[in-house]
Specification:
With 332 residues, the protein is mostly helical. The protein contains 14 helices and 4 strands.
């Protein structure tokens, strides 16, 4: 029995609607997962809230790294340098000079941007592994400065007594209060990155990611936009470093070691490089996974490593891109 033309037209009209609905669901799935994890930590509180709070700080840090690596397709191993500048600026100015939270964070942000401009202007002319090695050197040099500059950073002894997050007399001291403040900061970061991606600047970044030669032929100032991407990445890194020291109340050079870079790379690729939700999902998953495998005791690291490998094998585009890939396979 053949269907009438009117029936065929109605089915054709409903098909895009169903596809669009599935597409919206696929894009919303990572955010729903992240919201469920944060909501669970908010209800439970205690240790779970602390773990998720650190994950949210890393989400901001990795979002900055994602601008440079995901949107612009460059490589940076020096993101921890900007977190160190923001963190130590906030720590020193609030403890030694009794600055307020926002002025201290603003000073750290300005310092990180100035440092990124000075080192980025000559460094970003390099390409490939030369650029990655140069940025790695930036991170290592900053770490050594934090260790050796005892009169300011207190070296390995660190700086303690850093005031908690607070604005206009309100201080976030409990686990749930800190989690709420950090959630607001992550939402603002996500909206900012999404806005950058949709803007003219974001389209220029996409051009650079595709081909620098083609972007240059289209009239895009390659050097300028690479530097702008580097500065935006440094800004988010500085903010993450400042938030970290005020949440913990203590800072030392070990916080900004090479381990921070390795962890952030893992979060970025597990979550989905180049996606908006990737840094948030990746930071939450990589932070929560070790806690879920504590029952394995002696085999905890083995189980954790195996889980990460399986994630990268079966979700090469990251968890944020996994749902989109599933939807693309279902769609004709």
């Amino acid at each position: 029995m053949t269907s009438s033309p009117s029936t065929t037209l109605r089915e054709a009209a409903r098909a895009p609607a169903r596809g669009s609905l599935r597409g919206h669901a696929a894009r919303a799935a990572p955010w729903l997962i992240a919201a469920c994890v944060v909501g669970y930590a908010l209800v439970v509180g205690g240790y779970a809230a602390t773990v998720v709070a650190f994950a949210l700080i890393y989400a901001i840090f990795v979002s900055g790294l994602n601008i440079f690596m995901g949107l612009t397709a460059q490589v940076s191993f020096g993101q921890s340098a900007f977190a160190a500048i923001g963190g130590y600026a906030s720590a020193v100015l609030t403890t030694e000079y009794e600055w307020g939270l926002l002025p201290a964070m603003g000073a750290g942000l300005a310092g990180a941007l100035a440092f990124a401009f000075v080192v980025g202007y000559p460094t970003l002319r390099l390409k490939g592994h030369y650029l990655s090695m140069a940025t790695l050197a930036i991170g290592l040099i900053t770490y050594e400065i934090a260790v050796q500059w005892d009169s300011v950073t207190q070296g390995y002894l660190g700086i303690s007594g850093i005031p908690p997050l607070g604005i206009a007399g309100y201080e976030a001291t409990t686990d749930r209060q800190i989690l709420i403040v950090l959630s607001v900061c992550v939402i603002a970061t996500v909206l900012a990155v999404a806005r950058i991606r949709r803007s003219r600047v974001g389209r220029a970044f996409a051009g650079l990611a595709g081909s620098e030669e083609a972007a240059r032929a289209l009239g895009i100032n390659v050097a300028r936009y690479k530097l702008l991407s580097f500065l935006l990445s440094a800004g988010f890194g500085s903010l993450a470093g400042s938030l970290f020291v005020h949440v913990v109340g203590y800072v030392s050079p070990e916080v900004f070691s090479l381990h921070m870079i390795i962890l952030s790379f893992t979060m970025l690729y597990v979550g989905g490089i180049g996606t908006i939700a990737g840094p948030v999902v990746g930071a939450l998953v990589v932070s929560v996974l070790p806690e879920t495998f504590r029952a394995f005791r002696d085999y905890q690291d083995l189980a954790y490593g195996t889980a990460l490998i399986l994630l990268l094998i079966f979700a090469p585009r990251g968890l944020a891109g996994l749902f989109t890939a599933i939807e693309e396979k279902r769609s004709p």
